[in-house]
Amino acid sequence: MTHLDHLYRFASHLTKDQEQAHDLVQETFVRAIAAHEQFIPGTNLKAWLARILFNFFVDHYQKNKRWAPLEDASNEGNDDWNRAAAENPGPESQLLGKELGTQIKDGLAALPEEFRTPLLLVDMGDFSYEEAAAIMSCPVGTIRSRLSRGRKLLARRLKAYVKGPAAK
Amino acid sequence: MTCGEAQELITAVVDGELLEAERALLETHLHACADCRTALAAEQALKQAIHGTGALLRAPDALRVRILSDPRIFPAQRRSARRWRDYLWPMPPALRPALAVALLLALALPAYYFIDYRREPVAVAALESYDFFVQEKLPVSRPASADEIAALLTRAVGGRFRPMGYDFSAMDLRPVAGLVREIQGRKILVAIYQGPHGAILCYTFLGSEDDAPPNAAKFFDSEKKLNFYAFSRGGVNAVFHREGDVICILASQMPMEELLTLTRSKARAS
User: Is there a single domain that holds both residue A103 and residue A148?
Assistant: First the structure.
């Protein structure tokens, strides 16, 4: 049951549905057991499991699904979330901690999957760019650019929220 | 370098992935650009916030149980049967029929007894009393207090071990009765807790983890450093764990996930 929490977290944010997340994690373990001879001892088990999970997700949940439309990214200026986070890194985030968690969860859920997955792998899963690239089967440079873009999109979604409570 | 070009490098520095060749370029830009310094701090804060949000989410017990009870992941191990077979067949295949006949003649009755015994491990056999309890067929004594139940049960086994004495009052369940059963020569203490919404039977006996049913779903609680075994019999769910040389089984008709969570919360860490 190694890495179960991590896999569940990844699956939950990928599928955005608890039952599907349970199925996805369970099937990941089934596939891992069936393919255990392909795992090379000494390499990263967590990354191997995450790759199985992601491939299963793409095969079974993403087929026939089109990417969600990308938000307008024309505004390149600093936004209120940026300022609030930079100016109030401590007490503010603690005070709003729970609320912020919900906002981030909702914000991640609204991101197109291609931007959400690198954030889940690198920010939540603590994977390196190279590991994330191997899991997603894409170049390392793609991970970096999607992370950059994904965080910007997420920050923009949080802007309205920061405006509210932080302004008081 | 423009702010747009600096953006990806800021992301890389936040993730500790900036290439050495890019470092000087970014540092020069940050030195001159207050907006990008603010953007860097903001992106670091956002990364931490995402990490913190993720850390709050842990796999629920229901998922652990589901994985542990999936035979594709953890094939049901008939531990005793496997040892028995390994013991039986160490020789070349040609000799196996002869050995089989010899065993059949010499050991037919004891072997039958052995198999029958293993088919119903003591932990599973104990659950029979749950059915009797539901049917109100149990010869239980109904003392006035939890202490009296504990004292009565402890006396019944000559003080060799005690019932767990769990407190389920938070679930509106009170100890109402106790009884002693003897199964396969072993004394089993049963404390019965009852409330308006259901009941829990708590079994206690001297034993080891070999007493867990072979088909039980097993998992390890890393915090308490205990193995828990979940199994069911005729609609009654049960969770088995060991504290020293005492086995405890909680049995109830409540959903398995809830019973497992309850047992884990009550079990004393080893």
Answer: yes
